[in-house]
Amino acid sequence: MSWQEKSPEKLIEMDITNRFWRAVIKKMNESSGNRSGIHITDLVYSCLRRAYYDKTLGEAVSAISDNEGMMVVWIGQMLHEMPIDPDRCEHEKAIGVEFDGVKVEGRVDELCRLGDSYVIVDKKSTRNIPNSPHDHHIKQVLFYSAILTKKYGYRVSHAGILYLDVANLKVKLFVIPVTSQMVETALREIESKARVLHQAITRKTAPAPDPGWLCSYCPYFRRCVLDGWGQDQEQNKRDLAQIRRTGGSDG
Predict the structure, then answer these.
(1) What is the rounded CA–CA span in Å between residue 167 and residue 177?
(2) Domains of the chain (ranges, CATH numbers)
(3) Which of 147, 169, 172, 244 has the lowest CB atom count within 10 Å?
(4) In Å, how far from its chain's centre is CA 201?
């Protein structure tokens, strides 16, 4: 059926729906912006190639392939913008650290006072709340804890990851105790990954990939495959087939 044959109601539906999605994409682009420098969220994945593409291509929003996935991200952005408790929690606290000229920045969703210590809360939207927090989400709050402790002198006792299930409107908070050993380990990992990513960006050479189940949700998945995962193309194909078979849950 051509557009001339469609009913007025159908044409209105198509027009308003298209306007809505354009507004969502515009809002997402405005919220994400063109972040310069290295951010904590660039370092939480074991695969730094994703962060490299973020910095050199900047196509993450347009690369989201389905409307449902885009809606999850959009709701997540609105969730980040909402303060939990303005009286007791510092909302979207900007932090940063530097290693021999390599700067790493971050923004903590909520930093809440609890007695003589502090609790970090990071908010995540998802289509399925996991049984336990994802590793990269745990790394993110531990990285925040490490910088807040070592650079700013905060005593962070716990870190929370708040998941919002956009499909079933359920909320689950996972609370993780933060120890001094975890802080030291996290700080070393931040420095190591930041140096590798900084060098890759400077040399304009993508870091080696680290294929896993998260590849299924990476907005640069196709680009990464086209760039090749290694010299053995047959092995690349086998790795790709394995990833597609195993898949994973929402990240």
Answers:
(1) 29
(2) 65-206 (3.90.320.10)
(3) 169
(4) 19
Could you tell me which residues come within 8 angstroms of residue 114 by beta carbon, excluding any fewer than 6 positions away? 157, 158
The answer to whether 48 touches 189, Cβ cutoff 8 Å, is no
Structure tokens at 202: 């400077």
Q: Backbone phi, then psi, for 10, in 5-degree steps?
A: -65, -40
Query: Within a 10 A sphere around the Cβ of 206, how many other Cβ atoms?
Result: 19
Which residues, 6 or more positions from 164, have their beta carbon under 8 angstroms from its beta carbon? Answer: 75, 76, 79, 123, 124, 125, 126, 170, 171
**Model-level pTM?**
0.76
Tokens linked to 122 = 């990071």
Interatomic CA distance for residues 103 and 97, integer angstroms: 6
Q: For residue 94, with 0-12 CB atoms within 10 Å meaning exposed, 13-18 middle and 19 or more buried, which class applies? A: exposed
The pair of structure tokens assigned to 51 is 């962060």
Is residue 166 helix, strand or coil? coil
In order along its 251 residues, the chain shows pLDDT tens digits of 555 567 766 766 777 777 776 776 676 666 555 556 899 999 999 899 999 998 888 655 444 555 666 666 667 676 667 788 888 899 999 999 999 999 999 999 999 999 999 999 999 988 889 999 999 999 999 999 999 999 999 999 999 999 988 778 889 999 999 999 999 999 999 999 999 999 999 999 888 888 888 887 788 887 888 777 655 566 656 655 655 554 433 34
> What is the C-alpha to C-alpha distance for residues 147 and 135, in angstroms, rounded to an integer?
18
